[in-house]
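Retry 2 of 3 after timeout on previous attempt. Resubmitting structure tokens to design endpoint.
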């Protein structure tokens, strides 16, 4: 499974980025993506899944859960995973038009002004460091 998962995740990430996946599969891709990376210590697999979760953020139904996974990646002990996640989130936040709607148990909206502040924080934080004081 180790040799198979990372290329599969890369392929799914490309398909999502090209909008080649129907909306009906979003929840299933999210569920499977979470299962693949849960408890994983494989950096290649984790980095490959970033594009999948970023791609899933295009659909309101799964945006919150996909964002939750990406935010967890920012707290991982692997600097390369943190750095790749921050870069992908920064780009995704720049693509967001206006407020970012988050559906879920408590629906919420992130105003565009707050999104700008979040983007700035994500871009200025040195995610590649191992210094936990800097990351807090």
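Retry 2 succeeded. Sequence:
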């Amino acid at each position: 499974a180790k040799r198979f998962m990372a290329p599969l995740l890369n392929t799914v990430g490309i398909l999502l980025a090209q909008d080649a996946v129907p909306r009906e599969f979003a929840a299933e891709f999210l569920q499977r993506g979470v299962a693949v990376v849960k408890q994983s210590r494989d950096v290649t697999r984790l980095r490959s899944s970033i594009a999948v979760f970023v791609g899933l953020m295009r659909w309101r139904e799964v945006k919150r859960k996909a964002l939750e996974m990406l935010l967890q990646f920012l707290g991982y002990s692997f600097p390369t995973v943190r750095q790749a996640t921050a870069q992908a989130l920064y780009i995704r936040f720049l693509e967001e038009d206006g407020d970012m709607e988050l559906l879920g148990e408590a629906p919420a909206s992130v105003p565009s002004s707050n999104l700008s502040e979040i983007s700035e924080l994500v871009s200025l934080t040195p995610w590649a460091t191992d210094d936990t004081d800097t990351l807090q």
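Attempt log closed. The two ends are 34 Å apart (CA to CA).
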